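Hey, resending since the last one bounced:
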Amino acid sequence: MRRTRTPAELGLDGHDRGRLTRALGKIRELPTYRRVQAVLGVARGQGVPEVATLAATTPQSVYHWVQRYLRRHRVDDLRNGPRAGRPPAAPGITTARIVREFNKDPMRLGYCSSDWTVDLLARHLSRRYGCAIGARTLRRRMRQLGLRWKRTRHVYKNPAEHLPQKKGALSAA
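The structure tokens again:
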């Protein structure tokens, strides 16, 4: 059976315990908090298997986190690194282009609508810039830009005289 190494044998000392304890109060991201908490547990003398169980991870991950921290003794090394993520949909349709086209009148562009709908604007942008964009993507981008739109509401210029009766009101006889 392997002997559990002490914090000093791993390279952790009292300064590391203080640094990690102070960092716990400032961290806002959950994965980083879990890593710092696990490294702090090892620095306080808890066994790696015990810390791994408390952190709901494998002992290998805890050893990896401790090694990552010990390279430079910096808590920031335990943060998530930047990730590439999914490439943006319709990169040719920039936010400036969305705003510019949104501010135009669809009637003057030849559409049979006085207001933009998301579907209509998405089709227009796709045609205009030769880059397909879906309605969901456009809606998400418009929300990020703070653009708001409401559905058109049809109002009769001269409402019928008997409209209140149609709506259920009593006649004024």
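The first helix runs from residue 7 to 10.

Sorry for the duplicate.
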